[in-house]
Amino acid sequence: MGMLEFPITAGKLAAYLNAPILGDPEALIERVGSVQNSNQRGLCYLADKKAQHFLSSLVQGSVVLTKKDWVREELPITYVLVNEPKSVFAQIAKSFEPKSQWMGISDKAVIHPEAEVSSLAHVAPFAVICEGAKVGSHAVIYPHAYVGPGVQIGERCEVHSQVVLVANVTLGDRVRVLAGSVLGSDGFGLIEGNLGHQEIPQVGTVIIENDVRIGAKCTIDRGTLGETRIGSGSKLDDQVHVGHNCIVGKNVILCAQVGLAGSSVIEDGVVLAGQVGVGDHIRIGKGARVGGQTGVTQDLPGNETYFSTPAVPLKQALRSHVLVKNLSELVGRVRALEKKINGNADGK
Fold it and tell me: For the whole model, what pTM was predicted?
């Protein structure tokens, strides 16, 4: 789906989507919003029947992306009917994302003579691109970003302000690295000896495959000897830490403040909720889901939902939580029984 130009009428949007329309085809769309607070000339979506009651609060002139079964025809609003309202809305909303101001290559950027920067790339003032680095076509390097020696940046990447790509990091195509993230810093490897803690040299690299999103203030350490890898299509929220030599599969979601210790393996399609901690050399199987603040201390098979610390299947965790909740009552009952038994014994 290409970019749309706004304002646009509901009729033209429906034609663009090849979708049926109910209501006023001349209804004008100037902005996007949520079904809870969209207003006149606004586009929103309804992707859950449970939220259908919010339609009553929409004003005349609102346009809603939704399924035919969820339409309320008595309301003075316009519907564009699609099978996947949320997905379609997400594609349309891209037209409203802030556009980069930086066009071309600024003469205030610091670019080493032996760096290779595509003539179609955009490099903002005060960005630094070091020796041997390569920047692909239509990539955008924001102000104060640091692209270290030997870093490879693919096509249509975004490297935002205060990002540091330390050295020999590889970004595939269409990778987004948001503000303040650091890729390729030293892994945390130590040897204990008579002289105290000695750091192990970290001479590996970081490889980020295509279509990865790395949120703000993330840290991804380079491998000790080999590589730390993030698979294609994976999305990292803000403040995620990935230790040295971790392998993160394809289409993985790591929510805010997830921490992966060194050499852990996260297989394809895994979702780790906020503040999940994963121990070193742990493997989490394909399609697993792990609830927030769970501590993973042993390998977890795939296609299962886990919770608690240490991580156990969700049903088991919920049963344990019920028992813990009732523990004080059970203790009281046991003490009462002990007192009764001891009293009977004294009576004999």
Answer: 0.85
